[in-house]
Design brief:
Blueprint: E1 10-12, H1 15-21, E2 27-30, H2 37-44, E3 51-56, H3 59-69, E4 76-81, H4 94-106, E5 110-116, H5 131-150, E6 157-160, E7 177-178, H6 188-193, E8 205-211, E9 217-220, H7 224-227, E10 242-243, E11 250-254, E12 259-262, E13 275-279, H8 283-289, H9 302-309
Parallel strand pairs: 1-2, 2-3, 3-4, 4-5, 5-6, 6-7
Antiparallel strand pairs: 8-9, 8-13, 9-12, 10-13, 11-12
Helix pairs in contact: 1-2, 2-3, 4-5
């Protein structure tokens, strides 16, 4: 559906995802280095029919890919992962980026195609608070690209972005493509950072009230195995998700199978067996944790959806 609306490619995190998405897309970016020889061998099969790019921040990653692909007639595009402030992965300076780019340019089986970055450190504030940070990223990219040009190298692709910063991509003119992901569903991280509303959150957990024995508390059958233990980045004290029917409630504590919901601020309290709807803090791992996903069409009565779910464990 995204490709039909104009997306030019898909980003994946691992080789297994690339092999699946290759069934529907001809342009794939693996935003995580494949180092294991078996994974590199699997990845090497894709360039025969697909455009494949992979982000790296080490010569070891380049060597792992080059060793497997170098003897074939096909190449894999390489993007140098540049750390722009999130401090998770990425080379640390423009000079480091140039050094790795030169190494890639000398390696067989791979092609230096550009730069990848992730502005994840800008996700936890209102959009207007990101302006100076995005401008700083632009300056860093400009410095890196200028260094490459003066050394005879070209970055055809500058790939970056995130859901919170997507609508401000114009503040980074060096950008040639951006990669929002969470926007497909949205979550409380998006809501509390100001880039989505509650109505924009498409995926929700339906859970059942299992206990009301402790005063001021309701226990739901959706613990960390369902909601994950991720806190909300912009509001870490807001609890483990938002209960749509009880906005004043707070999921204060999670264990594997239990969500302990503080209802002391609520006008009314849920009853045993009642179904409630939760918008998670971080929808991405929640999708990964669920065995079943129910699709609700516009105009479909919510009650009919709940009946479908009645015999199932908590689902998205």
């Amino acid at each position: 559906m995204q490709l039909a609306r104009g997306a030019v490619g898909l980003t994946v995190a691992k080789v297994g995802e690339a092999l699946v998405m290759a069934q529907v897309c001809d342009d794939l970016l693996l935003a995580y280095p494949a180092l294991n020889p078996a994974r590199c061998s699997e990845l090497a099969r894709l360039p025969r029919t697909k455009r494949v790019f992979i982000a790296v921040d080490s010569v070891e990653a380049v060597d792992a890919i080059s060793t497997v692909v170098g003897s074939s007639r096909h190449t894999i595009g390489i993007l140098v992962d540049l750390d722009v402030g999130h401090h998770r992965t990425g080379v640390q300076t423009p000079a480091d980026a140039l050094e790795l780019a030169q190494y890639i340019d000398r390696s067989s089986g791979v092609c230096l195609d550009g730069i990848l970055f992730f502005p994840g450190h800008l996700s936890h504030g209102p959009p207007e608070a990101n302006v100076s940070g995005l401008q700083a990223i632009s300056a860093l990219l400009a410095e890196t690209l200028d260094l490459w040009r003066r050394s005879g190298l070209h970055a055809r692709i500058v790939s970056g972005g995130s859901t919170p910063s997507a609508m401000q991509s114009h503040l980074i003119p060096e950008l040639t493509e951006f990669r929002p992901g969470t926007y497909i569903f949205n979550d409380m991280n998006c809501v509390r950072s100001g880039c989505a509303t509650l109505e924009d959150c498409a995926a929700r957990i339906v859970a059942t009230v299992a206990s009301t024995a402790v005063p001021g508390q309701v226990v739901l059958d959706a613990g960390s195995k369902t909601l994950t233990s991720d806190r909300c980045g912009p509001a870490p004290d807001s609890g483990h998700g938002f209960i749509v029917e009880y906005p004043a409630a707070k999921i204060a504590k999670l264990s594997e199978e239990h969500a302990q919901m503080d209802v002391t601020q609520c006008d009314r309290s849920p009853t045993i067996g009642e179904r409630v709807t939760i918008i998670p803090n971080h929808i991405c791992p929640c999708i990964n944790l669920q065995d079943n996903v129910w699709w609700q069409e516009p105009g479909e009565a919510p009650q009919s959806l709940l009946v479908l779910k009645q015999a199932n464990p908590p689902t998205v």
